[in-house]
Amino acid sequence: MNRKPLFLSFVFLGLVLFSLSWPPAAQEKHVAVIKVNDVITPAIAEFISKSIEQASKDRAQCLIIKMDTPGGLDLSMRDIIKDMMNADIPIVVYVAPSGARAASAGAIITLASDIAAMAPGTNIGAAHPVALGGGMDRKMAEKVTNDAIAYVKSIAEKKGRNAEWAARAVRESVSITETDALKIKVIDLIARDLEDLLGKIDGKTVEKPRGKIKLATKGFKINTMEMDFRQRFLAALSNPNIAYILMMIGMVGLYFELAHPGAIFPGVIGGICLILAFFAFRTLPVNYAGVLLILLGIFLFIAEIKIASYGLLTVGGVVSLALGSIMLFESPLPYLRASFAVIIPTILATAAFFIFAVTMVIKAYMAKPATGSEGLVGETGVARTRLDPEGKVFVHGEWWNAYSDEIIEEGEKIRVLKTDGLTLKVEKLKKKN
Asked: What is the rounded CA–CA span in Å between residue 141 and residue 170?
């Protein structure tokens, strides 16, 4: 019996198992970098969470979050901070480039980092909490503020930063420059750019859940990670301007489908846009009185078709649409409201569409029938036989039985006065002088 093939099979199997058990080749020493230049939303929170996870798997020395944000949602901010504080690798928040800011939620995220850095010409602060839906009474506002103060102080104390300033940033919405932030120990350092930052954090020791980690970053390769398509899509949906436009397209699409059953395409697009809009509304300060006013405006446009209001319902629809659009997002923060540069053209375009649709429908109702026997009234033709009083006429490419109150000779031109079943009443066509 030839044992050589069996022996070679065992050798091959052994090599496969050995290769699987061998640790992966060490990656080139690097630091991971992500850029956050947007409002803090669930999509941004997911991006940061996935980036921390990936950087840990890739054995990066640290993750640098290059930040420029006006703030964002409290729940998303807290999710980010939990991921940062429980990460296996050091997290560095770098407020950059010059002219950038870490405001509101961004300021608290910066305080929660293992190393906080800022570029020249940047600022941090203004972390007072804002009610997304508005309408908080004084007692509730005080509770929310006290909760935010306790939260930010605990973070600052844990990271060895200025807890008193952190409390003032929440209570009084104070904001400071990078030089003042360094002086009062809000941040750890100022760096011109990423290369300068890597040189300055080299050798620093940070405390993580698994123990102390000493950074070695000088001259390391920078590995920049980007948002994937799904995260970019979700981030775009969180924009109030996008959410508003999607809602308006959805309503117009559904109106068109209801007005013209069987068109299918407008209904499908309208339904998808409305679902996406209401998905975006979960993370935006939506005032549902605004939504109801927009729905009322569309109802008034539709009612104009059925009721002769001489344009009053259309005017009411435009006013209701405008008020609803302005009231739709209720927040003192501009990045959580739809821009007037988007609202005004959208209102004008939507109103123009509905006015055009209503006008066409009214014209169709008022127009005389163009088909069937009723459509023959007013048409001209030729007498094919003598009408005394009955005979045959040729109208609209067809032969008809006809009668007249006057005698009409064969070959004379006639006009249809009315229809009586399948018989036409006609008159002799008068010649113009």
From this structure: 12
Q: In this structure, are strands 123-125 and 175-177 parallel, antiparallel, or unpaired?
A: antiparallel
CA–CA separation, 161 and 117 (whole Å): 12
Provide the pairing of β-strand 423-428 with 413-420.
antiparallel
Known catalytic residue: 404?
no
pLDDT tens digits for range 116-148: 999 999 999 988 765 544 455 677 778 888 899
CATH topology of domain 27-230: 2-enoyl-CoA Hydratase; Chain A, domain 1 (3.90.226)
Encoding tokens for residue 178? 């990078």
pTM for this model (two decimals): 0.70
Domain ranges of the chain: 27-230, 239-366, 373-428
Catalytic entry in 143, 218, 221, 306: 143
CB 396 within 8 A of CB 424: no
pLDDT tens, position by position, 218-246? 878 899 999 988 888 888 888 889 989 99
Q: How far apart are CA 395 and CA 400, in angstroms?
A: 7
What's the gap between Cα 76 and its chain centre? 17
9 is a catalytic site residue: no
Condensed to tens digits (0 to 9), the pLDDT of residues 354-379 reads 777 767 766 666 655 555 556 678 88
| Rounded CA separation 187/124 (Å) | 10
Specify the CATH architecture of the domain 373-428: Beta Barrel (2.40)
Distance CA 422, CA 249 (A): 48
**Which of 51, 66, 76, 104 is an active site residue?**
104
